[in-house]
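Consider the following assembly input.
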Amino acid sequence: MTATSRPGRPVLLGQNQYGKAENRVVRITRDGDTHRIKDLNVSVALSGDMDDVHYSGSNANVLPTDTTKNTVYAFAKEYGIESAEQFGIHLARHFVTSQEPIHRARIRIEEYAWERIAASDANSRFIGADEVRHSFVRKGQETRLTQITYDGESWEVVSGLKDLVVMNSTNSEFWGYVKDRYTTLREAYDRILATEVSGRWRFNWTGDEQKAPNWEKSYEQARKHMLQAFAETYSLSLQQTLYQMGARIINHRAEIDEVRFSLPNKHHFLVDLEPFGLKNDNEVYFAADRPYGLIEATVLRDGAEARIPADLTNL
Amino acid sequence: MTATSRPGRPVLLGQNQYGKAENRVVRITRDGDTHRIKDLNVSVALSGDMDDVHYSGSNANVLPTDTTKNTVYAFAKEYGIESAEQFGIHLARHFVTSQEPIHRARIRIEEYAWERIAASDANSRFIGADEVRHSFVRKGQETRLTQITYDGESWEVVSGLKDLVVMNSTNSEFWGYVKDRYTTLREAYDRILATEVSGRWRFNWTGDEQKAPNWEKSYEQARKHMLQAFAETYSLSLQQTLYQMGARIINHRAEIDEVRFSLPNKHHFLVDLEPFGLKNDNEVYFAADRPYGLIEATVLRDGAEARIPADLTNL
Amino acid sequence: MTATSRPGRPVLLGQNQYGKAENRVVRITRDGDTHRIKDLNVSVALSGDMDDVHYSGSNANVLPTDTTKNTVYAFAKEYGIESAEQFGIHLARHFVTSQEPIHRARIRIEEYAWERIAASDANSRFIGADEVRHSFVRKGQETRLTQITYDGESWEVVSGLKDLVVMNSTNSEFWGYVKDRYTTLREAYDRILATEVSGRWRFNWTGDEQKAPNWEKSYEQARKHMLQAFAETYSLSLQQTLYQMGARIINHRAEIDEVRFSLPNKHHFLVDLEPFGLKNDNEVYFAADRPYGLIEATVLRDGAEARIPADLTNL
Amino acid sequence: MTATSRPGRPVLLGQNQYGKAENRVVRITRDGDTHRIKDLNVSVALSGDMDDVHYSGSNANVLPTDTTKNTVYAFAKEYGIESAEQFGIHLARHFVTSQEPIHRARIRIEEYAWERIAASDANSRFIGADEVRHSFVRKGQETRLTQITYDGESWEVVSGLKDLVVMNSTNSEFWGYVKDRYTTLREAYDRILATEVSGRWRFNWTGDEQKAPNWEKSYEQARKHMLQAFAETYSLSLQQTLYQMGARIINHRAEIDEVRFSLPNKHHFLVDLEPFGLKNDNEVYFAADRPYGLIEATVLRDGAEARIPADLTNL
């Protein structure tokens, strides 16, 4: 082997973490003939006294990533999956409290929603229900997200979503902006406003002594308020719409102190039909892929600390 | 330039086609304050007297792909988009009848569905409606597909969908199969059956003298029957379920003569929890990515000709 | 269970096939300290006497897809992987000859190429070689493809590649085309020509009595001739370039009778810099995503039959 | 419009930024017949006095994202693209110094490498060169990355790469780790070590008064040292290999103070061939997709500050 730098040499180890990413777990719960599904993608990241494994390769402090995978599946059986948040809390607590060298755990979860398949008339008479109790179709709309972080003392829970595409076909303008030598854009007084929402919201629940939020209801309500703010804001800029989406969540959900959005402006360009002798009265648009405007901001309850990082990660 | 083969040399041109792929067109229709959206991805492929452009580079018979793009947008204005099928029929007819060298047009369309955003209570009182009339969220479930082919005389319309993920959490078995030297699989008497449906169905409408189907209703009904057959079949093999899905469509929809499915068996493996002292009573599954069983078949009305190709293309 | 259609009812089964798709197999061969890698993604599709499994769910004729997966891995050990083509031939022959109900096997393989990592000076003295003999970096350029089909009597081998992006920054023109009411494109006398090559070529080897090609050399040479034809053709249309690419392969490789390409015209639009007082002398381009021209054609040895399907599949 | 929260209410704006993402610019430079390509994907993010546009929708301080796109293309002409880093520095300086409300610019760039196509013998005699001077094939290996941040006073440049897949087929072990109730993994004394490198390195160049690094040479050398460290480290853990990769860069490149890697452990599982009567002597592996171990760490020059964020972003 070649000579390489070793402890004592002037190269140090900084922040580090390890774990098993993207454990796909599906949990079925049976209530008689009626089945329920929780479908998650769980990623575990652990950190603590891990210098040696980097410097010398000693694994004496390393709980294998394979074991963290096994724990995800075992806990799905032992504790069930009441909500992604609650499941992540179980996991994070376990790793930090059961392994002395592990000081911090971060659990990230994606959740995919399913809805029931309607029964045919013949079958609904047969089974006495309008939906087949063990048959599902993936909803396919947004991917729900949560991230739980625990350092043995306090909790941070950030939930949210990605992949939710929305559009207002009117009530959006863009004018009055700075013009410089490189500006060619024309002002718009009635444009399509469309984006693919990536949003995260941070809960103010931080400790076991506080009552935890109702995670499922909180998600459903935050999503609803965000969508309504998008739909009901007469927009002079995508930034204004973003702020309203965040403010609506904070004003309606006491358990949430901070919201961050990353909103690509999915440009819909009005097609110039004049060369063909046609007038395009805001009817026909070209939906462009790249480039896209990208608007990102944090909206905060007054007095709250900003903790969601500027760059939202994909998972 | 280097010497290259020319006509006269023994290398011939075979099947060829050209066009503009993936024209993203969004069409807004206004009924007072109420807006409607059609959101399509349109691909044009043309063929005919095109030997010269391949042999010598002469473009004398070539309508540019850029022109076909313009035509998509212009027709969205001139004719509107009643259904993807009807829109594709307009386009195919135009290219074949307006350009003498073009003998055949194939239009492929992907359609993305949208649903309305519910209004907040305050706003629904204000606007007098439960939904914001110009605000939409992309449904995000399946991608609807159609392919229209026209040779100047007869039509072929094949519609369908992709990306629709479905699951039965019980009522699926797999046993009684062939065992050879390489077989290690254990028989299953209660397994999860999950797949991502890619399906195509061919209409028996072939000519302008026949009454065309109601394309929108046909899609909605074919999708419904297919989902119900998936849900209601007690499955001894994915092949059996596939056949039932196709047969249900053909039995209920007189306008459809042929159905083909490509169904990846999205394996959900029961996790072995015994090493942890736990019993997995069909509760905790690992959802695997690759490899996957892949089941493909055509289901036909008796007497109908099989014309959908064995390999379904992605678009 | 609900009533469903059964044999006797007028819904018939058409073409069908099944198997295990995307078996990722990595085979290491050791020649002393020097390791070699073959890295494949193998998909198996089988067909034959399979009516019963569709109609009644009887698996009596079904070799499980799990067994076909096992066979891929076992054969990688027993026979090694000399070339993707040779490996696919072993597999296809096995399935058809060992299972009476299986009449036809189609093996599709993707291959990912690797190259060795150069040793540092210190280490190359230590190991006596310029490259580390067990260390590799994935080449990452094209994905090599092959498809082997066997019906118990004759073979069809179609090889090729996808994902190979090429560009000529000059020597490409486009003019003299048809202009209709919807044409706005301006003629171009010096444009960028770029495409992402998806190509397939069919071998005229069909039977065990013929000497099989040297599959590895054939691939390397076909790829080289194709690239050189792309580079050396002064292009008046992408169709012309496509024909030259195919003709060059057929003229140089006696073992290949038919070539098909699907070539997206990856548009590079000259950016209009005049509003900024700048002249764009074919220097600055916008690389567009969608839509794209799509040019597809088959090139054939005179007298050969065209058998590669018009729609190239992704795998 | 519905009532929405306004300034004065207790919801505040936090960190925010905006700009045009993914501007695809291709720059051709001609040296006689010899062309050179720079192929970039440029994303602009700006921040500063932007409260009003969020609270009220006033765009008085907003340079449109469309203008930032135009600037990318205009600068490609005016200044050329010597390196991605130098190009990003030009852009960042421009936005911060030319627009009073903009206090900070962050430019992210992806670069795609191209190599020349070899000429055929006939043509190389004709053109007097072994390579066609205007013909290129995309290298397709890693994507090169850089991020330039400027606040009007000091610079931060972080470069790196993603998508580089590497493998050692031996010289990797994993044993001596923690075992708990959920541990089933067996110790490994000769395993494949494979990963897809995502790495970032921070330069200690921060101000115009310092001599800037040779960006092109720095990239080439950092990449080389990183690959050699991967190949030449006898690995007892992926963490150890990661540390060596970072240390090798810092020890050899004085201009770099900090390196961070995110290394998915691309598991290659030895296939159990015993059921088939075969011995798998480290020859046949199954390459798994998910889940994967994920190892992330920062390596620092002694005394340097850690500034690269723990979560590497994709672009």
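The two ends of chain B are 37 Å apart (CA to CA). Ask yourself how this observation constrains the way the partners meet.
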